[in-house]
Amino acid sequence: QSVLTQPPSASGTPGQTVTISCSGSSSNIGNNLVYWYQQFPGTAPKLLIYKNDQRPSGVPDRFSGSKSGTSASLAISGLRSEDEADYFCASWDDSLSAKLFGAGTKVTVL
Amino acid sequence: QVQLVQSGPEVRKPGASVKLSCKTSGYTFTSHGLSWVRQAPGQGLEWVAWIGGYSGDTNYAQRFQGRVTLTTDRSTTTAYMELRNLRYDDTAVYFCARDEGQRLAKFDYWGPGTLVTVSS
Question: Are A99 and B44 within 8 A, CB to CB?
């Protein structure tokens, strides 16, 4: 069981907004930066959001990140079929002295 | 452009060791650390270990302590991960990823991954 908790799945129709949560604790999200990764089957993950809410160049502004207390969220607005992928949150954990990933959320576009 | 090129697939028997490589290019090797992240079939991502590009300092996930060793060769800007005493549940794709810092989780460039299969 992951220390960072994500819902296993989320879905929406094209154009809708889908939000994925990532719940942690004071030793990880509460005191450290959060990152989000997108992964398509058979490929390496891609950095989607860094430092809680920053987008690397090339990432559409449909993707946005936020953090409040010991939880973080990734929102995908204007959902498109090509957004169908797995999404992982990640953060450093002070107690474990380790980098952690959430278990991942599979986004399905209906 | 930043590139991470990983070594080819490996098959090992339980109890054996494997050493994977990650050849980097397109950036100053000593300015960034590098992490190894693995993904078992159908599973999520699991961080294995980190090594500093300049210092060579390492940080290993607790569950791999004593079984994994990270090294780098600055002359060839290549990083290596050796995993010993392999178990069936070590079967996974192992990714190397450029890592901004020891206490961060920012993996901004990834290699394509190396499949390690542990089978008798």
Answer: no
